[in-house]
Every structure is written in structure tokens, then in C-alpha cells.
Design goal:
With 684 residues, the protein is α/β, with parallel strands linked by helices. The chain is built from 17 helices and 25 strands. Bound molecules: alpha-D-galactopyranose (GLA). The site of alpha-D-galactopyranose (GLA) has 11 residues, from loops.
């Protein structure tokens, strides 16, 4: 089963932020903004392809992804290769002005492979080896599997690396689960040995005197992803990251030498999924891409927008939506559709947040297989599904607005920091089951996005000097080097906001020698005296008015006379009564703020308004009704606004000046009225 994809930092800033480098499509004869679909020609007789491709062309589809599950068609028996069908599929697509992204087929090893090489099958944490079937049944660490994966990827690259109609490569498909096979375990032990040198060093860093965990040898160390020493668990995640990176690198190295430089290499990621560290993986990839599916019954555009921003942050440039749903999926508990109009709304939101391609999964219903119920553009009979017309409209609109969008990207003055180490560390020891990292990030992201209309989501060590405000919602793991990076940012005039639980752990997931925020205590001039999980709301009041905290509350203490108490807890459990909840210290032109509680939305929104105002961040377009999203993409001498009305009521927006309404024939307008789920694309 597919893992459901779920669902920001400044001041001194001398020049507008240059966060995302424009990533227009770099191949000839294709428009700058692409509509696409996942196409599985191997499931259909060639005689039917033209009908499908005609319909794609009529929908303004300019790219298809092909091949990512077609290993048994490419190599039906070991060493027997069939490429003619793929040659033809690429040529036929090209004849319809459709370019191809080739997926390496390694997420679905064929039966002959797993039968002959059973050691390539994945082993679960409880020691059970997968049998052949379903997909993703391989071990990411197995040498033989890597050899076979390298071989098939290399053969594809030799054949298609210079094919003018192949524009890029997707490695595997939705990298996800680790394996606990003996080879993976041995590799983990070797990884630990390399990292720590001696077992004595590991014992010290992991604090193994606790519960008699002291090891005499690396080989004794259990391999677990749950219920273990948090230091072990954190290192396991890092090992899993490195193993997925080398797994991917194995295929990148097979493709790169044979591929034209114009062909990009990417993989399709899964939004909030945190099985490994995407920042590390993306160092070896050319662009980021993700599969944008709504994980909950309702489309929350803020969550979805944050996940676009998260993906843009992997490479700090524009990205692709490699897959998205044509109204509905088949893997949720209830696969209710998006409302009519919301598919278009989502497509434009992707572009607004920096995608240059939106591809639907999938083009046509499969004849059989586990996904017969999934949303499609055309049905089993090859005729359009009801959603086809809406997607066709999107395609026509991408063509209309493409030139204006070419070379443009979103740019933000505000950043949210997202750290895999911190998310993992909190998940290992939540302390409150309600402390959900995604929800915590969204609590800070929402008001920032609402009020500034542009937010980057970046890794903790990303360059911060372009941002006026940087917010780290729960930067739990905060080693000294990261602290130095943040201190430098504040000293240069940046406004740093830390959320609860920040600065508690070092790089080994051990408690810092100082209380929170550990290495930032000096800069803040204050610290946490005690943390508390909350079973209900407690009152909080101060400069931002009165409200509540829930889930988490830390009592703070200001130790420097320059450190101000902005908010305090009211009467509750005695421990919190009257204690500081938010501290802030000005440092030159910059500042550091520590928010010790999970505050209610209204209160956090008011504090956010103060932070943005102090830092001089203004909305891109003022006075926009709630539920209307403003996205801006800028490039050299270009500003394009994308307005999306996520509401079910009609809304009007007054523009900052006269603009061309690109989807309405280029008429010059000073305001627009957007119907329910309406979109306007406006060029300055
Ligand atoms: C994932 C996979 C696709 C398909 C879709 C269905 O994203 O990458 O192969 O299974 O889910 O939603």
C-alpha cells in the first residue's frame, strides 16, 4: 500500500530574497509550464496508443511519465530485453508533441528476479522476509539488488540518454521502507563503527550506562526503529537516509554518464513522509518532485501549500508535481472526490508555489490490478472521465500563461525551518500523543502564510541571510554548529522565533547540558525551567492579548535584564500560574523569541503579526478576503500573481495596480472577481 503523503527565517536583508532559482523546462519545443500524466503503454496493445495520445494532446498534455513499473515488460527473463515497445511509445508520444520522463522500474522487481535472488527481498522489523507480490518488496541495502537495478537503469540510459524526446529520469518510485535483513544490519553496524570509531565512544555518546545498555562490540547493537534508546533510533534514521542515498546514487551513476545534461534526474517524494532526510537525498538529484495527494477527506489548501513549499525547499528551486489525483484516489479509508473545480484549484496552487509541471496519476484505468478504483482522466473504454474536461481546461490555461511564467519563481522574506532530526526525536518520545510535528509546523506556518503570502520551508542549515523572519517551530535537536548558524543570523539583524521543545537535544539525541534552548540560552538571555504536557487548555496573556495554550507548556525564566517576558500563563495547575510563556530579546537590529507553549491559533496569529511588522514584512496584496490565496512568482522584470479562491462563495480582490488578466484574454484590470474555486493569473 502506498504511504499516504500528508502534510520558515531575517532581517538584515539587503536585497530581495533570491531563494528559488527559476527552473523552466530546458528542452526544446515544449511550453514552460507542463501538464502531464502517468502513462502505462505496456498495459495496452500498441494499436490503442494513438487514440490515447490524441486525447492527451487534446487535453494539452505535454509530458508523460513512462516505465516506472515496467521491469517485467523490459526484461521478461533474466538477460532478455525488450525495448521496441518503449522506443515506439516514446516516438508515438513525440509525434503528439508529448515529451517523456522515464522511470527506472526498480520499485517493482519481476517474479523471475525475486525467485532467483530471494536475498533481494525486504525483511520487516520483526524479521519476516517479504514474498514476491505487490511492489516495493526489495531490500534497499542488498548488493545483488543494486547490481540488477544498476544494470537495468544503465541499459535504459544507453538507449534513451540521447533521445531528444526524453526530458528526464525518475529513479525508482516513492522510496519508502527500510529493510532489516542481515546485510542491512551488518551495514548499520559498520556505519556505526565508522561514525564512532570505538565502542567506548558510542557508549559515551549514547549514554548506555542507562538500563545496562553498555556494548562490548558494534555487532551487539540491536537494529530497531522503535522502542530503543533514542540515540540508536536517531542513528538508525540517519543510516536509513544514507542507505537510500546510496541506493539512489547507484542508479544515478548508471544514468549520468550516458544521459544528455539537459535530462534531469529526480525521484518522486511524498510530502510530509519522514522515513529519511530528503535534504540529503536531494544533494544528488537535479530537481525535486513530489506526489501531491490529499491525505484527509477534505482539501486543506494551507497544508497542501506548505507541502509544496517543503518540496521547493529540498533544492531551493522550482520543482515538479510528478503525480496528483484526478479528483480521487483508492487508498484512503473513504476515497471521496475533490469537489468539481478543486482539481483546477489544486493545479494552479502547485504552479503558484513553484511547480513547473503538474502530472496526473493516472491517464487511463488499468484493465486489472490493485488500483482499479483510482481516479483517471480516461476510463477503461478509453473515453474521457468527467474530470477530463476540467484538466483539459487546466492544460489550456497552462499554455496561455506559460510564457508569462517562464523564468519566474516564488520568493519569500519569511522561512520556516523543518528538521528531520527534530521531527524524529520528538516522535521517539512525544510525551504527549497530541504533539504532532506536522500540526505544530502548521500552527506556525498558517498565520505566516496568511499574513506574508509567501513562506519558504527550509532545512536548519540552509542559508538564512535572505530572510527577514525565520521561525523554527520545534527545533528539538540543536547541535552547536546549528546554534552558531542561528546566532550569526540574529547578529546580522535577523528575527528568529523558536517554538516549544527547541534546543533540548544534542546531535546524539541526548539532553543538552543546559536546559532549553541549550546552546541558544546565552543569546536568548533566558531558558526553560520545566516542560509540561497539558491535558487541556490553560490561559495565557500578555502583549498579544489573551488566549490559551494546549498540548504543551514550558515555564520560562528571563536571566538577562534585556530579555522581556511577552506572555505569561494564567491560573491553571499551580506550576504554570503566572510564569513566563514567551520571551524575547533584541540583539542589535535582530531579535530572538522563544515561544514555550502551543498557543491557540488566534493568539499565535497576533504574535505573528507583531513579528512580521517588526521585521518589515508586508503582504504581497493587502486586503484579500480569507480563503483567497495569493501566490507571486517573480523573475527578471516580471511579476505574475496567481489568485485562487478556495472558498465556495464568490470573492473580489483589488489588485496593487493595473494588471493583465491572462486567463481572460489579457484584459487590463485593477480588480478581479473570483467565482467559487476561481483562479486568476495576472501579469504586471
Ligand atoms: C503513488 C504511486 C503511484 C500510484 C498512486 C496512487 O503515489 O507512486 O504508483 O500508486 O500512489 O495514488
Amino acid at each position: 500500500m502506498r504511504l499516504a503523503s500528508i502534510a520558515v527565517m531575517a532581517g538584515l536583508i539587503l536585497s530581495p530574497v533570491t531563494f528559488a532559482v527559476a527552473q523552466a523546462t530546458n528542452y526544446a519545443n515544449q511550453p514552460p509550464v507542463l501538464l502531464g500524466a502517468a502513462w502505462y503503454p505496456e498495459q495496452w496493445p500498441e494499436s490503442q496508443w494513438d487514440t490515447d495520445l490524441d486525447r492527451m494532446e487534446a487535453a494539452h498534455i505535454h509530458v508523460v511519465r513512462v516505465g516506472e513499473f515496467a521491469w517485467s515488460t523490459m526484461e521478461p527473463e533474466e538477460g532478455v530485453y525488450h525495448w521496441e515497445w518503449l522506443d515506439h511509445a516514446i516516438a508515438d508520444a513525440a509525434a503528439h508533441h508529448i515529451a517523456v520522463v522515464l522511470g527506472t522500474p526498480t520499485a517493482a522487481p519481476p517474479a523471475w528476479l525475486t525467485e532467483k535472488y530471494p536475498q533481494t527481498l525486504r525483511v520487516s522489523e520483526d524479521g519476516v522476509r517479504d514474498e514476491h507480490g505487490n511492489r516495493q518488496q526489495f531490500s534497499f541495502a542488498d548488493e545483488k539488488y543494486r547490481e540488477l537495478a544498476h544494470d537495468i537503469a544503465e541499459r535504459m540510459a544507453i538507449r534513451y540518454g540521447h533521445n531528444p524526446d526524453v526530458v528526464g529520469w525518475q529513479i525508482d518510485n516513492e522510496l519508502a521502507n527500510p529493510s532489516f535483513d542481515p546485510e542491512a544490519k551488518a551495514q548499520f553496524h559498520a556505519w556505526l563503527k565508522k561514525k564512532y570509531g570505538t565502542i567506548a565512544n558510542l557508549n559515551y555518546q549514547w549514554g548506555t550506562a542507562y538500563w545496562s545498555q553498555t556494548y562490548n562490540d558494534f555487532d551487539q547493537i540491536p537494529v530497531r526503529e522503535d522502542n530503543e534508546n533514542p540515540a540508536l533510533l536517531l542513528d538508525w534514521k540517519r543510516f536509513v537516509t544514507d542507505t537510500w542515498v546510496s541506493y539512489t546514487e547507484n542508479q544515478v551513476s548508471a544514468i549520468r554518464p550516458h544521459a544528455d545534461p539537459r535530462q534531469f534526474i529526480t525521484t518522486n517524494t511524498m510530502g510530509w513522509f519522514n522515513g529519511f532526510d530528503e535534504y540529503k537525498l536531494h544533494k544528488i538529484l537535479d530537481i525535486a518532485a513530489w506526489d501531491d495527494y490529499i491525505a484527509s477527506p477534505n482539501y486543506d489548501y494551507m497544508v497542501n501549500g506548505a507541502l509544496h513549499d517543503l518540496t521547493r525547499g529540498y533544492k531551493r528551486k522550482d520543482f515538479w508535481v510528478m503525480e496528483t489525483e484526478p479528483a480521487f484516489v483508492n487508498w484512503r479509508r473513504t476515497n471521496n472526490p475533490l469537489n468539481k473545480g478543486q482539481v483546477r484549484d489544486m493545479a494552479w496552487q502547485a504552479i503558484g508555489h513553484g511547480a513547473n509541471t503538474v502530472e496526473y496519476w493516472q491517464w487511463r484505468a488499468n484493465r486489472n490490478g490493485q488500483e482499479e478504483y483510482h481516479g483517471v482522466l480516461v476510463g477503461i473504454d478509453g473515453k474521457p472521465a468527467p474530470v477530463y474536461a476540467e484538466i483539459q481546461q487546466v492544460g489550456a490555461e497552462f499554455d496561455k500563461a506559460g510564457e508569462a511564467l517562464k523564468g519566474t519563481s516564488p520568493h519569500s522574506e519569511v522561512a520556516v525551518i523543518q528538521s528531520y532530526d527534530s521531527r524524529w526525536a520528538i516522535d521517539f518520545q512525544r510525551h504527549s500523543a497530541r504533539f504532532d510535528n506536522g500540526a505544530e509546523m502548521m500552527a506556525f506556518y498558517r498565520p505566516l502564510r496568511e499574513q506574508s503570502q509567501a513562506v519558504d520551508v527550509v532545512s536548519p542549515m540552509a542559508p538564512l541571510d535572505g530572510y527577514k523572519v525565520v521561525v523554527a517551530p520545534a527545533l528539538n535537536v540543536l547541535p552547536q554548529a546549528m546554534a552558531d548558524h542561528l546566532i550569526a543570523y540574529v547578529k546580522q539583524g535577523g528575527h528568529l522565533v523558536l517554538g516549544p521543545r527547541s534546543g533540548m537535544k544534542n546531535a546524539y539525541d541526548a539532553l543538552q547540558p543546559e536546559r532549553q534552548p541549550g546552546p541558544l540560552v546565552g543569546l536568548l538571555g533566558g531558558s526553560v525551567t520545566q516542560f509540561y504536557a497539558l491535558a487541556g487548555m490553560v490561559p495565557v496573556s500578555g502583549v498579544a492579548g489573551a488566549g490559551t495554550a494546549d498540548i504543551w507548556a514550558e515555564t520560562l525564566e528571563a536571566t538577562n535584564p534585556e530579555t522581556k517576558v511577552l506572555m505569561r500563563y494564567g491560573k491553571s495547575n499551580g506550576w504554570l500560574d503566572g510564569q513566563p510563556a514567551v520571551l524575547e530579546r533584541q540583539v542589535g537590529k535582530g531579535s530572538i523569541t522563544y515561544v514555550g507553549a502551543w498557543l491557540d491559533d488566534a493568539l499565535l496569529s497576533k504574535l505573528t503579526a507583531m513579528w512580521l511588522q517588526d521585521a518589515g514584512v508586508k503582504p504581497l496584496v493587502a486586503g484579500v478576503p480569507a480563503g483567497v490565496e495569493v501566490c507571486e512568482r517573480t523573475g527578471e522584470d516580471k511579476t505574475v500573481l496567481i489568485l485562487i479562491n478556495h472558498n465556495t462563495s464568490e470573492e473580489s480582490v483589488t489588485l496593487p495596480g493595473t494588471m493583465k488578466n491572462l486567463l481572460a484574454g489579457g484584459a487590463e484590470v485593477t480588480s478581479v472577481t473570483l467565482p467559487k474555486y476561481g483562479v486568476a493569473v495576472l501579469d504586471q
